Amino acid sequence: MARPGRRVIRFAALVLLASIAAFALQSLLAGDAATFTTAESGDPAATAAARAELGLDAPAPVQFARWAGAAIRGDLGKSSATKEDVVDMVARAGRVTLELAIAAQIVAVIAGFGFALLSVRRIGGRLDATIRALSFALLATPGFAIAALLLAVFAIRLHWVPAVGFVPLTEDLGANVRSMVLPSLTLGVPIGAAIARVLRADLVANLGSDHATLCRAMGYSRRRIVVGHALRLSSINVSSFIGLEFARLLGGTLIIEQVFALPGLGRLAVQSVGRRDQPVIQALVVIAAIAFLTVAQVVDALHTRLDPRLHRSGDYVPS
Amino acid sequence: MRARIGSWLALSWMALLTLSALTASWLPIDPNRFDPGARLAAPNWDHPFGTTRLGEDLFAQCIHGTRVTLLVGLGAPLVAALIGLPLGMSAGLIGGRIDQGISLLLDASLSMPAFIVSVVLVTSLGATVSTVIVVVGIISTPFVARVSRSATRAISDRDFVTAARSLGSTSARVMWVELRPNLTAPIGSLLALVGGAAVLVEGGLSYVGLGVPLENASWGRLVAAGRDELATAWWWSLIPSLLFFLTVLSVNVIVDRWQRGPVLQVRRRATRLIERSSLATGRVDDAALLVSNLTVSIRSPKSGFAHAIVSNFDVRLAPGELVALVGPSGVGKTTVARAIVGALDDAMVATGSVQTTRTRGHRSALIMQEPRRSLNPVSRVGPQIAEAARVHLGLSRRDARERARHLLTLVGIDDPDRRMRCYPHELSGGQCQRVAIALALASEPGVLIADEPTASLDPIATRKVFDLFDGVRSRTGVAILVITHDLASAQRRADRVVTMS
Questions:
Q1: At what angle do helices B180-207 and B234-260 cross, to 10 degrees?
Q2: Residues A129 and A168 sit within 8 Å (Cβ to Cβ)
Q3: Could you report the predicted ipTM of this complex, rounded to two decimals?
Q4: Alpha-carbon gap, residue B151 to B102, rounded angstroms
Q5: Alpha carbons A88 and A74: distance in angstroms, whole number
Q6: Which of A100, A264, B110, B456 has the fewest CB atoms within 10 Å, counting from its CB?
Q7: Cβ–Cβ of B108/A17 closer than 8 Å?
Q8: Nearest C-alpha of chain A: how many angstroms from B168?
Q9: Cα–Cα distance measured from residue B399 to residue B407, given in angstroms and rounded to the nearest whole number
């Protein structure tokens, strides 16, 4: 665990590296926005003018410096396709993705902890084997297949929920929840299977430890040993896993958003790549990276709280 | 047994896929020939997987799509390994600034949103099979680099590498001869999982229309093509999805099998002699502990018979008595201790009877050989002791805390208020042992079983432990059964010595 000062520097360095990579990435897109918007006219002069207007004629380091200077002040530029402010576009799509990520992670945590705790009721028993096989199967199922099955059953056959589309939270709470049910199940259940596997492995290890033997010798109930002792000890790895999965979801849930027509970050990314909207792509990559790094920091801090063995005396400045 | 069948099935499936990918061009099936008379036909004899809207044979398309799947599944891990392995291994071996630099780069690339990056890359480099392979490979590189870095670091700290280095081996030789066999398992299984994930990523990219070009039939494209006909022609989308499922499942099963090592051959169980423990426990008036006819057997799944490791053991402890249990290693002393406190392994069965004196609290308590490892590492010691008092004596939180403080003083811990707030790792080995004794006493047992409490101690520390036991039994009246190898101390300090042989 580094000192706070070093952590801030490292964080800033990582954001800078990710921004440079994002810049390199978006400049790879052959046919920049200027050529794209002036393609019909076919006039090279018009293209050049458009390039100059968008600042695309400057050398790459200058372009990056301009972008970074504005970005620090909270200005991510304007979309070259719609002329809309990038911050607004990302914020609008980000709300959808954030809601989806949270809903999916709630599903995943409930399913994962539930399955893991059921598994260790009798380690090696029939229920354990069934859950293991089930989680294996879920981890091997492609997301679009889960989506297709859920859609076929719940939307097309039973009409319980709408097939596609999104209603903002602020507009109609009930409709919003209904439009989120299938996407969050599709995303959350496989993550839940992964959580169950991670947690079960740690629970089994901790239930076989010296400490668990001592707990049994002290006559504690199985429930107390599992929930009060083993679960607390096993929560360390799984909490990192949950945090990083959440961070990954924030980076865009492309296929699910595409299948269910949710106007989130993933769809915005595909749209923007299609129309060579470089400012939006740059912003999306950098914001996703910052979100990931922030979650990773939180996970790290949580880790230290959950596992007191990670406190090292060297970190404390003597007063 | 079932696990073996599973991995054989998985391996056969992968072999079948490889075979179809290799022979697809020579098979008498044509993915592009359409049969207008059989549009959207359900699976039948002529078209085992059914047909598409144009009457194309889905079976032929799936077989041809196998090539893309296998190419991506093998190519992407190869790319990831070619970049990631040298990067991670050099970071792990060289260390220092180079390690810091590489780790920073890896963390930065891990923070990038993988799907957006791959969409941009596939779009800008052109959607071909090789682009998809390279892109998925690059995305997986940081994971491979990270795992190889930590595996290298973990191994390079180990004795055999230090030994090889001190014998004058150069770094490169150390790397190849010593590290390679030890890296194979973690990296190999990770690469296999990358292959499985790559197949799904290709599917996802093709599904949103960004994967391989149209002329390459790929499973992802087939799923995407059929998704609008899900209600009318389920096979179009679902059969290719099923192929994805079976393939990734097979990879996972094989990796899982590999990670767990060789399977013990489990034969069908013969008649079992002992179904379950029938150890009688009860209370007795005139002794602290009365063990009679204790037999502990270990169940052998192979024969179904139980093999006795302790036979007809008897011991009796009077209240306040300290008895030493000695005997050669492997004679079952620890097993006796576990049987008395009721914490045998699941594979063991016990018969006979264990009776303990009537007390307010729990019948017995155990002090394990390694006290620090037996304590809860993430919980402060005060609450741990208090928990035992709350559970067995029904004390309130405040009373339990008071009792914990009292017990810590009893076992000779200085400044108990401060120590109660410590975690086990913040205490010395001797302090941990005292805490373990306090914890054992917290449930007010009639008898305390101490398993090798002096095993790794010098004579002075050993004397202190026995002094402590004497203090505890004179003040609480608890009987103590000490398991030890130290015959001399046992004879000097115990009221009685019981020998197991």
A1: 170
A2: no
A3: 0.82
A4: 15
A5: 11
A6: B456
A7: yes
A8: 35
A9: 12
